[in-house]
Specification:
Structural class: alpha/beta
Distance between the termini: 16 Å
Number of helices: 9
CATH topology: TIM Barrel
CATH superfamily: Glycoside hydrolase/deacetylase
CATH class: Alpha Beta
Radius of gyration: 17 Å
Number of domains: 1
Shape: globular
Helix content: 40-55%
Number of strands: 10
Length: 261
């Protein structure tokens, strides 16, 4: 049976300012990328989401980002290697401590926003994030943009990499994501999202914003938790997959099962 992982970015509320519906998303997704306090999230809120994920058996990962609360981690930055390695280690370590208190374990790392996009092609910053992950725990899985150079770079460095596609984002012909500043960058129609992701899961292809088809290797699919239609999109996507006989399971658990088998 074909298996697909659904992930979402959660734990991004800050104090009295809510961001998305984490509890509803945790009832739908199989993996949760939890903010680590640099681009969003506060310790009490992060701990609450981790406990909710643990209660539902949802696998959690560290959603590390630039030190950019004001810009929600979506502004391009150029930290030194020393800074980026330290910041990444700090965020993973903080989430590991909170996860232990919540009765769960950090299984993977997914960079956020501008950091995610930058390291997809910037070998220096990618190397810093890779080095930080290896320094903390080389068994942590890196979630990276499908088709990006960082996938090969991280695998060559000895990390396990899971390739990610985005259900609610438009793609360029080179496999990169269309800038959020461009019209049509974010897709809000649940039926359109479901149709695109079913085709990706079964054929390994997706239609770009220009109408061309490209091939993508993806083991996990992200629905952003901070969009107004996030829960409806995720629910529609889950229904579409199960309706086609596609099993939903966390990629970390699937890899563990394969290793044990």
């Amino acid at each position: 049976m074909m298996t697909v992982d659904l992930n979402s970015d959660l734990g991004e509320s800050f104090g009295p300012w809510p961001m998305g519906d984490d509890v509803a998303m945790l009832d739908i997704v199989t993996s949760a990328n939890i903010a680590c306090g640099f681009h969003a999230g506060d310790p009490a809120g992060i701990l609450k989401v981790l406990r909710a994920a643990a209660a539902r058996g949802v696998v959690v990962g560290a959603h590390v980002g630039y030190r950019d609360l004001v810009g929600f981690g979506r502004r391009n930055m150029d930290p030194s290697s020393e800074e980026l390695v330290g910041d990444t280690i700090y965020q993973i370590g903080a989430l590991q401590g909170l996860a232990k208190a919540a009765g769960t374990t950090v299984r993977y790392v997914k960079p956020h926003g501008a950091l995610y996009n930058t390291i997809s092609n910037d070998a220096r910053q990618a190397g810093d994030v890779i080095a930080a992950i290896k320094a903390v725990d080389p068994s942590l899985i890196l979630m990276a943009l499908a088709g990006a150079p960082i996938v090969k770079q991280a695998r060559a460095a000895g990390l396990t990499v899971v390739c990610e596609a985005f259900a609610d984002r438009a793609y360029n012909a080179d496999g990169s994501l269309v800038s959020r500043r461009a019209p049509g960058a974010v897709i809000h129609d649940p039926d359109q999202v479901a149709e695109r992701m079913l085709r990706l899961a079964t054929e390994g292809r997706i239609t770009t914003i220009d109408g061309d088809d490209i091939e993508l290797e993806a083991q996990t699919i992200c629905v952003h938790g901070d969009t107004p239609t996030a829960v409806a999109l995720a629910q529609r996507l889950r229904e579409a997959f199960t309706g086609r006989g596609i099993r939903l399971a966390a990629f970390a658990e699937v890899k563990d099962g394969a290793a044990r088998g």
